[in-house]
């Protein structure tokens, strides 16, 4: 799957690397600021380990 994504990215190797890092950053920010705050109240965590 990663090879498929890599082949579909535009440009040469440097451009592909920059675009892929940008996509990873966007995905991480989306998870951090949208998905995890929405999910946290729905998880049965009590704070003890």
Features:
49 residues, mainly alpha
Radius of gyration: 16 Å
Number of strands: 0
Q: List unreliable stretches of 5+ residues.
A: none
Distance between the termini: 36 Å
Bulk shape: elongated
Q: Treating each run of at least 4 consecutive H or I residues as one helix, how many helices?
A: 2
Instruction: Classify the beta-strand content into a percent band.
Output: under 5%
Structural class: mainly alpha
What is the succession of H and E elements?
HH
Mean pLDDT: 91
Biggest β-sheet: count, sense, barrel? none
Identify the quaternary structure here: single chain
Helix content: 55-70%
Summed up:
With 49 residues, the protein is mainly α.
Please, could you describe this protein's structure?
There is one protein chain. The chain contains two helices and no strands. It is elongated and about 50 Å long. It has helices at residues 2-8, 13-39. It is 69% helix and 0% strand. It is mainly α and 49 residues long. It has a domain at 11-40.
């Amino acid at each position: 799957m990663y090879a498929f994504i890599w082949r579909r990215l535009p440009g040469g190797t440097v451009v592909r690397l920059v675009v892929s890092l940008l996509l990873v950053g966007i995905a991480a920010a989306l998870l951090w600021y949208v998905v995890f705050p929405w999910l946290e109240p729905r998880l049965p965590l009590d704070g003890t380990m």
